[in-house]
Amino acid sequence: MKRIGLVGVGSMGCNHARVLRELGGVGDLIICDTNSKLVNGISQKYRIASCYKSVFEMMRKEKLDGVVLSTPTDTHYEIAKSILEYEVPLLIEKPISQNCNQAEELVSRFRDKKIPLMIGYVERFNPVIHQLKQVIVDIGIDKVLHINLLRIGPFPVRSSLHTDGVVLDLSTHDLDIIHFLFGLKIARVFMTTRMGEKADIYARALLEIGNDITASCEWSWISPQRKRFVEVFTSKGCLVADLSRQDLFFYNHAPTDLDGDQDHFKLLQFGKFQNEFTKFSVTKKEPLKEELIYFLKMIDNEAGDNSNQPVALMRILEKLYESSHSRGYVDTNECYAEY
Ligand SMILES: NC(=O)c1ccc[n+]([C@@H]2O[C@H](COP(=O)([O-])OP(=O)(O)OC[C@H]3O[C@@H](n4cnc5c(N)ncnc54)[C@H](O)[C@@H]3O)[C@@H](O)[C@H]2O)c1
Question: Which is higher by pLDDT, 69 or 271?
Answer without folding.
Answer: 69
